[in-house]
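Usage

Read records sequentially. Each one opens with the input sequence:
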Amino acid sequence: MLTRMDPIREAKRQWIAHGWADAADGMALVTSLVRVHQLVMERVDAALRPHDLSFARYEVLRLLSFTQEGQLPMAKLGSRLQVHPASVTSAVARLEKQGFVRRSRSDADGRVVLAAITDAGREVVEAATVSLNTEVFEKPGIEDVPGVTALLSQLRAASGDTVD
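and closes with the structure output:
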């Protein structure tokens, strides 16, 4: 019979055994965060797969749908989503091919490229939001969601994020 063990606990034990006790808790925390990220993204991907969306493309659509006019300059999309401009360009290009977004030049400043959500984009983002809410967000897998979120906010702030 195969005995299962917690690989992060074993890694922490090894850290201590190798003389790195001062870093062992931090290593366990970071390794746990990376593993939790993998697990959560598996759930997110499963919820979005039927809608033919990645989380990055979902975030673009959700942000555009929240705006008054349903559109934003590409640079503002990247800034608000805290991602590299190339990532936004790639996500918007894929969404445009899917018919969920259209790109155009700003009438006020022809140098500015706008991304605008289409009616099809609005439909898919609403359906995807229902899936994410019911399959992931309403039952994230822990009880003290506000407390854990506050702890993660401390980590974000210590890394330079603006946290209210």
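Summary fields computed downstream for this record:
- The chain has a mean pLDDT of 95.
- The CA atoms of residues 48 and 130 lie 10 Å apart.
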